[in-house]
């Protein structure tokens, strides 16, 4: 028994290959389209969260990457409130525990808010830790979604699909695992950190403006993504890398086309990002077959998906073309890790 009632959880980042972009409900975080992602190995990019409540804590407190931060974030408060409600309904802990203040300490081992899916790992971690702390049983992907949409995919390892759902209360907007982290052991992600500056437009604002002003986003959600998502799931299950990679690149390009179609435009990719795109196409052309795929979230940093056998050659090429880049790293697939400490 841990005298401090602490629970620590490590949750991995996930990088989407079919992107979530645009909400139909801002508060419940309900997306306008399904998305598909890969959950990476926790050894390289992960969030780690410890939660702890005590009868003698005088206030709720939050530390993010070692810095004491105000406990006023509405999404954080929303997650905590929902979890405590469930705990009360399920009578999962002594009612006194629910009245104790809580301390939350969370850290990432990679840049926060630089378009590297930090909120996905952060909220997945938070929700899993709180659910363990209050011993509730529920669909954790739904709870994580309320913190940050893409976080709902980080509660599962391997290949994950977030179903947009149709219900207005969000009860069917949840993630499911397509295949676990051992399904395609050769799959690797190569993260190229183009910039670790905080992004200028948050994904929340970028999406909101896109839904309001882009015509292309409606076409994407209605006509492109449904077909693409089914094809992506099939490519993953069949381990068809060429198909997987083509769909991944096309979907990333479409996301950034929508960002440009947003008024005023929202530009996340930089000249260096575009050079990475050129490099990947040139390399694939040279190989006579698609060997590498790029994908970009709401930031300039690239995630390349490739098979293990191609990693040495692609890394050599990157070092040659981007000699000053020092923070590129390769990772495989992973799962959530939980360190449970009992009351
Ligand atoms: O969950 P958010 O609000 O950080 O949005 C993430 C959006 C993208 O990373 C660009 C796409 C995705 O599906 O992860």
Automatic annotation (TrEMBL):
Instruction: Name the reaction it catalyses.
Output: (R)-5-diphosphomevalonate + ATP = isopentenyl diphosphate + ADP + phosphate + CO2
Q: Which residues form the Diphosphomevalonate decarboxylase-like N-terminal domain?
A: 11-175
The organism's lineage is: Eukaryota, Metazoa, Ecdysozoa, Arthropoda, Hexapoda
Q: Where is the Mvd1 C-terminal domain?
A: 189-343
Q: State the pathway, as annotated in the record.
A: Steroid biosynthesis; cholesterol biosynthesis
The entry's family comment says: Belongs to the diphosphomevalonate decarboxylase family.
List, in alphabetical order, the GO biological process terms annotated in this UniProt record: cholesterol biosynthetic process; isopentenyl diphosphate biosynthetic process, mevalonate pathway
Entry GO MF terms: ATP binding; diphosphomevalonate decarboxylase activity
> Is ATP-binding included in the keywords of this UniProt record?
yes
Q: Which UniProt keywords apply?
A: ATP-binding, Cholesterol biosynthesis, Cholesterol metabolism, Lipid biosynthesis, Lipid metabolism, Lyase, Nucleotide-binding, Steroid biosynthesis, Steroid metabolism, Sterol biosynthesis, Sterol metabolism
Look up the EC number in the record and give it: 4.1.1.33
**Which SUPFAM superfamilies does this one have?**
GHMP Kinase, C-terminal domain, Ribosomal protein S5 domain 2-like
> Is the keyword Lipid biosynthesis assigned to this protein?
yes
What NCBIfam families does this protein map onto?
A: mevDPdecarb
Group of enzyme by EC? lyase
**In which domain of life is the source organism classified?**
Eukaryota
Function text: Catalyzes the ATP dependent decarboxylation of (R)-5-diphosphomevalonate to form isopentenyl diphosphate (IPP). Functions in the mevalonate (MVA) pathway leading to isopentenyl diphosphate (IPP), a key precursor for the biosynthesis of isoprenoids and sterol synthesis.
Recorded GO cellular component terms are: cytosol
Organism whose genome encodes this protein? Parnassius mnemosyne
Annotated protein name in UniProt: Diphosphomevalonate decarboxylase
């Amino acid at each position: 028994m841990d005298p401090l009632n602490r629970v620590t959880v490590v949750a991995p980042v996930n990088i989407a290959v079919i992107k979530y972009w645009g909400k139909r409900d801002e508060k419940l975080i309900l997306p306008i389209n399904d998305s598909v992602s890969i959950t990476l190995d926790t050894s390289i990019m992960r969030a780690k969260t410890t939660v702890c409540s005590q009868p003698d804590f005088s206030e709720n407190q939050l530390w993010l990457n070692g810095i004491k931060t105000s406990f006023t974030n509405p999404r954080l408060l929303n997650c905590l409130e929902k979890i405590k409600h469930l705990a009360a309904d399920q009578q999962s802990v002594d009612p006194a525990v629910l009245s104790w203040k809580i301390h939350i300490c969370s850290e990432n081992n990679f840049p926060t808010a630089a378009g590297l899916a930090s909120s996905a790992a952060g909220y997945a971690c938070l929700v899993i830790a709180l659910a363990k702390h209050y011993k509730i049983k529920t669909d954790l992907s739904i709870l994580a979604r309320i913190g940050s949409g893409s976080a709902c995919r980080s509660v599962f390892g391997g290949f994950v699909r977030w179903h947009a759902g149709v219900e207005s209360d969000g009860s069917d907007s949840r993630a499911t695992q397509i295949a676990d982290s051992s399904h395609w052991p050769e799959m690797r992600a190569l993260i190229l950190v183009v910039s670790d500056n905080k992004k200028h437009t948050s994904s929340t604002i970028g999406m909101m403006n896109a839904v309001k002003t882009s015509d292309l986003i409606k076409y994407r959600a209605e006509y492109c993504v449904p077909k693409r998502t089914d094809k992506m799931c099939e490519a993953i299950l069949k381990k068809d890398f060429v198909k997987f990679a083509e769909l991944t690149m096309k979907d990333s390009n479409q996301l950034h086309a929508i960002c440009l179609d947003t008024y005023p435009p929202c530009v996340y990719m930089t000249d260096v990002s575009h050079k990475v795109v050129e490099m990947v196409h040139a390399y694939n052309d040279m190989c006579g077959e698609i060997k590498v795929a790029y994908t970009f979230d709401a930031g300039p940093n690239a995630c390349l998906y490739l098979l293990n056998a191609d990693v040495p050659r692609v890394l050599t090429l990157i070092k040659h073309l981007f000699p000053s880049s020092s923070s590129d790293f390769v990772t495989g697939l992973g799962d959530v890790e939980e360190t449970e400490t009992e009351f």
